[in-house]
Amino acid sequence: MIRRMPETPIKRVGLTGSIATGKSLAASFFEELGVTVIDADLLARKVVEPGTPALGEIVKRFGPKVLLKDGSLDRAALGKLIFPDEKARSDLNAIIHPRVAREAELEFSRAFAADPDSFVVYNVPLLYETGMEKGFDLVVVVVASPSTQLERLTTRDGFTLFEARERIASQMDIFKKAGLAGAVLENEGSVEELRLQVAALAAAIRGHNDKTRKDLTNRHS
């Protein structure tokens, strides 16, 4: 559902949600439609590869227990430390997010150089939590109810009920995010239903961009 569109062409789309709402699935449907998608989680893994300054800072802050035997980051061990501790999450974000932001900007630049008229989707979990929303022409939130999130986390991902609730609680309320968004994708039904919503949204964005570009051309002609 589209709530509001900007008056100018949409170049940067922020795609977010909360854990287990289906934002990565939605991102994959944008990719099926030929839209470039930048994945913040993949960039976050890149910036903490063995030998990187970020991984060194993480070990300094949280200790060697967050490393696997091969020297790579033990994300499960780190997760158990940060999800119940707001200060720990904040410290980790301060290490990772600036580096991810720099990598993302490089990806945006490459995408727009290849196709100046395209729009690019940035799949990012903590968009609102980190105050990134002003950097996008349109923010899209993928919504699922907390009960659906719990079911997915416990049955699909193997978390205990306590762990699942802890992870959901560590993020901003999903309905608050939806209220701030320019568009909302509801992911309570089938996979195909979400795919159709993404297709409709992508078509609306492209139509909006064609119209606003023509309007701008007419004003200057």
Walk me through what this model shows:
There is one protein chain. The chain is of the alpha/beta class and about 220 residues long. About 55% of the residues lie in helices and about 10% in strands. The protein is built from 9 helices and 5 strands; from the N terminus they run βαβααααββαααβα. It has helices at about 25-30, 40-45, 55-60, 75-80, 85-115, 145-155, 160-170, 175-180, 190-220; strands at about 10-15, 35-40, 120-125, 140-145, 185. A 5-stranded parallel β-sheet has the order 2-3-1-4-5, with helices on both faces. The protein is globular.
How would you describe this structure in keywords?
10% strand; alpha/beta; 221 residues; five-stranded parallel β-sheet
What is the CA-atom radius of gyration, in angstroms?
Answer: 19 Å
Q: Write down the overall geometry.
A: globular
Low-confidence stretches: none
Q: Percentage of helical residues?
A: 40-55%
Secondary-structure element series: EHEHHHHEEHHHEH
In round numbers, the mean pLDDT is: 94
Structural class computed from helices and strand pairing: alpha/beta
Distance from N terminus to C terminus (CA atoms, Å) equals 34 Å
Beta-strand percentage? 5-15%
The number of E-state strands comes to 5
Largest sheet: 5 strands, parallel
Strand sequence of the main sheet, in spatial order? Answer: 2-3-1-4-5
Supply the number of helical segments. 9
